[in-house]
Each structure stands twice: as structure tokens, then as C-alpha cells.
């Protein structure tokens, strides 16, 4: 259940904005059948409540030269908060690591990494990832094909 109350109009607004965040308030107001002022106020409320965290352009990974997308499971030596924070800071500074999650299971972190090609990834893995603070183990999974990549979050159903 969402932590904020969302009605059917909010959900229509969110769906429309996930589809195209560049829509004007006038266009959004037509979609949700509100006048522009109440529509604008709803969007502002959704921003203030943290439901809408920001707006961005979705760029084509391959168009930018990132031909390889991998997931890397990482385990660290020491599970102290200091060691984990040092690892997190190092990861945050690397633009090739496009996402990082702290996970439960066999590894401690899951990294999503892009590289131009296999050779570039191999070099990055050996000279950068393996030298991150506290690395004990890493395992790379190469993606072969993007079947479905995240472009929008599923919205809660109205009850």
C-alpha cells in the first residue's frame, strides 16, 4: 500500500507523467478532466509528498556507446557500518556503476554497470571494481538482451 493517499485522478496524472513528463499542465488537465489550476496543485502536492521525485529524459544506452550492461554481485570482507559506507561512497563516485542495491542473500551488494564493450568492462572490473574498499568476492552476470527495462513503476490499483 502506498504511504500517501492516491485517488483515481492522482493515478491518472502519474500514469500520464510517466508516459511523457514534458506534458503541459493544460494537456494533463484534459487527461484527468480537471481545470488547469487544480491539476497543477495536484502535481505540486505529489511532488511535495515525494511521490514525484523528479523529471528526467530517458536516453538510449547504446546510442551513448554503452554496448555492454552487466550485473555484478559483490560481497565485502567486513560487515561493519564503516566498511559498508566506504564501499557505498566509492560506488557512488563511479558513473559506470549506474545503480547499486544493498541486498540480502549470497552477496551484499548488486551493481548495475555499463561499459562500451567486453574489453572495456574487463578492464573496469579488474582495475576498478576489484579494488573497491572491502571487496571479498564479485560475480558478473552479462545481459544478452533487454527484454524489459524499467521505464515506469506499476501504479497501485484503486480499491
From TrEMBL:
Alphabetical list of CDD domains matching this protein: HTH_ARSR
UniProt keyword annotation of Transcription present: yes
MF (Gene Ontology): sequence-specific DNA binding
Keywords: DNA-binding, Transcription, Transcription regulation
Gene Ontology CC annotations of this record: cytosol
Name of the protein: AsnC family transcriptional regulator
InterPro entries per record: ArsR-like_HTH, AsnC-type_HTH_dom, Dimeric_a/b-barrel, Tscrpt_reg_AsnC-like, Tscrpt_reg_AsnC/Lrp_C, Tscrpt_reg_HTH_AsnC-type_CS, WH-like_DNA-bd_sf, WH_DNA-bd_sf
Residues of the HTH asnC-type domain: 6-67
Source organism of this protein record: Elstera cyanobacteriorum
GO biological process, one term: regulation of DNA-templated transcription
Keyword DNA-binding: yes
